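pinning this so it doesn't scroll away 📌
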Amino acid sequence: MSTPTPPSSPTPPSPDEVPRSINPLTVWVPIIVIVCGIVIGWNYMLHQIKKEREESAGMVEQRLPMLSRLEKNIGFVERNGQKVELAALKGKIIVACWVYTHCPRGCSGVVGELLSLHNDLEANPDVHFLSVSVDPADGPEELSKFAEGLKIKGDNWWFVNGETKEVRSYMTRYFGFQGVQDVPEKDRLSPDDKYIHDMKVALVDHKGHVRGMYDVASFDPEFKAFWKDKIRKDIGTLLKDKAEDEGKNGK
């Protein structure tokens, strides 16, 4: 008789065959991340929709751009004959333009619009007007007659001139005005028609940043009305910013 073979003991499963338990975190963490992403995305979308609706309704003041910065000082001669420094206007809102006392191309229209603005803001010491002559022949006497002819009063409007090349370079590089062009004699409308210059008005904040260029004397009545309204609103915005900054600094 043969001896019966004893039953073999079961072979233990290999490590690869052992079922692995699932870590709950591997399930819930991705779910939580996805849910948070959906919530954040949804709220961002609602915020953007609300913001766009408020902007379109004029309920939110859009931040003015920073076009350039008056990084460097420059000296001028004012219409009273005194030397002045642009740095002396640090901390003020500056409304700047080119001027040309014999300009036949609309310069008086720009200054006329600024005069209206000046009259509105005359009592505000935080706003200063600056008209820089494009013509080397505009000395203190010519600039004084021009200002007196428009009955411009107060010390918060400088009519200045300076060294031609330096002044033109500064106005173009730092204020952002277009370059001045000399008009050839054959193309002149009159003997005084010597220069073509930018007719826009630059607005500078109390930190020396140029925040806008305004075509307040546009030949298009609708554009003209738009820019006249906008520069008044933007000056109000910059005055508010200045007051807030001074409040933070305890002034």
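📌 and the second one:
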Amino acid sequence: MQSFCVTLRPLSAFATPLKGDTLFGQLCWAIRNRLGEAYLTELLDGYTDGKPFAVVSDAFPEHYLPLPKLPGSFYQAIAGEDRKAVKKRCWLPETEIEKPVSEWLGLARNASELAGEYSKLSEKHPQSHNTIDRRTNTTGEGGFAPYSIEQEWFIPGLKWSFYLVLDSGRLSAEDCEQCLADIGNIGFGRDASIGLGKFAVEDFQARPLPTQDNANACLTLAPCAPQGLGFDGRLSFYQLFTRFGRHGDIAVHQEGKPFKNPVLLAQTAAVFGTNPPESGFIGQGIGGNGELSKTLSATVHQGYAPVIAINVNSKECS
């Protein structure tokens, strides 16, 4: 497996966050549409047996990574700063990764520091819509029935980067870059059909995942499924959430419901006590054989996450 860093430039508003598991799902559809269903089926062979062809991280502001979700006792206290201000420090410069974890909170930046004159990395606005019956060109018997959808607009000039761990022997870097460009042209996530989620792939280059010496834990860069993997509980810290997934692309129109079964995942920036694997990712593939969807029995979900090898001071954990 080889790791790549991909840089994106948003070209429109987004209605879906750029999370790693969601990006992977749309990458699968892009591969199917460009290279064929048989090719995708071949790539997914062994996906739930620890052999993913690709593992995708969340997108982060360029040159920054998320601060690990560790208890405050793991970090050096910041004098003269109140608790609310400290909690906003969530973005760690990649150039500071090699420094001890205990210093990371003091080195982290908040969103307003990254945004500069804009004070925020993005703003959310409701967009009004109305449903038109295409057979009658009216709003239907219910009359005027508007609804609104929240759109997220990023500040001008802001670029986002994510890491991709790729088995380039199964899917070439060139094909993967083209499929990502296809996603950017069509639109990512919800309401792509009305112009949301468009981006340009600014850069796609091989780059090793950042790492620390004497690492004894893994910092995850995407939601992952750690269940039953035997991680050291004394060095594991994470926040759980439930992913209520939904089919995309043409699967929305197939017979059956468009929704997948819910999946319990550990949120991005979790820390798990385990020796960092050479593969560059941890977790497991979820689904297949109808476990995740009755509409498409072969549906899988990314429970893997690219990781940064870090050294957590065991004395601070006692």
